[in-house]
Specification:
Blueprint: H1 3-11, H2 14-41, H3 47-75
Helix pairs in contact: 2-3
Length: 78
């Protein structure tokens, strides 16, 4: 199995996905409130703002997944 397939197999494992979703929800919500709170309160959400909000959740998910897979790989348990 190629290294990329192994990486994706680990990254899509239930434990990694569950942890990454929790991190994304907490971090994404906090960052959205900090960065877009005014627009949310004013209900002034256009397409670019919505795209920023979506990215605000995707980035912590990706970072958490990358870190978890890397840690498992370094430990030799992945």
């Amino acid at each position: 199995m190629s290294a990329l397939k192994v990486w994706f197999a680990i990254a899509t494992g239930p434990a990694i996905v569950k942890r990454s979703v929790r991190v994304a929800l907490v971090v994404g919500t906090l960052l959205t409130l900090i960065n877009q709170g005014g627009r949310l309160l004013a209900i002034d959400i256009d397409a670019p703002t919505l795209a920023r909000i979506v990215l605000t959740y995707i980035v912590p998910y990706c970072v958490s997944t990358w870190a978890a897979v890397g840690a498992l790989h370094d430990r030799g348990t992945g």
